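User: quick one, sequence for these tokens?
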């Protein structure tokens, strides 16, 4: 018996249909809060704001000072600032200007938060939201006021993700 030949377009259409039908959906919002050491987040943010150049994130269209929230080798916030320095890693081999979330340092499995690694979100540091001040100002004020943690609250389902921040 021979198998019929299926062209790639038909195969892809069938695959999409099967995966969509069998994919679990989550319409109920879930929440998760990540806590970061404020002094390290502020150091990364100050690095980004002082940098003469800035790398673009996946959906960024204009360069500017930002923190990147990344699930990869742990879960961390990282400066997108670019300096012309040859050593981008510290003496232990880790990236400089990052702040790992509590209990989510290098070597930890990020799949416990939002289902895996490879996540890359951007937090703008200098543009003020309609209901507040720029994130860099919030971080500076919190640090001088005695706060020690930066909190990233994530509310998500299959359709969207909402990030809010706070300090404590």
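Assistant:
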């Amino acid at each position: 018996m021979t198998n019929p030949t299926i062209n790639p377009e038909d195969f892809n259409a069938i695959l999409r249909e099967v995966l969509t039908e069998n994919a679990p959906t989550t319409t109920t919002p879930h929440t998760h809060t990540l806590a970061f050491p404020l002094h390290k987040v502020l150091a990364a943010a100050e690095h980004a704001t002082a940098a003469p150049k800035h790398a673009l994130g996946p959906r960024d269209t204009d360069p500017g000072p930002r923190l990147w929230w990344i699930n990869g080798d742990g879960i961390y916030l990282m400066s997108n600032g670019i300096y012309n320095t040859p050593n981008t890693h510290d003496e232990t081999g880790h990236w400089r200007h990052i702040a790992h979330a509590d209990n989510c340092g290098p070597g930890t499995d990020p799949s416990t938060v939002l289902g895996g690694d490879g996540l890359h979100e951007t937090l703008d540091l200098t543009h003020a939201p309609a209901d507040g001040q720029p994130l860099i100002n919030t971080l500076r004020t919190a640090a001088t006021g005695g706060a020690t943690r930066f909190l990233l609250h994530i509310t998500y389902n299959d359709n969207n993700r909402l990030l809010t921040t706070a300090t404590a």
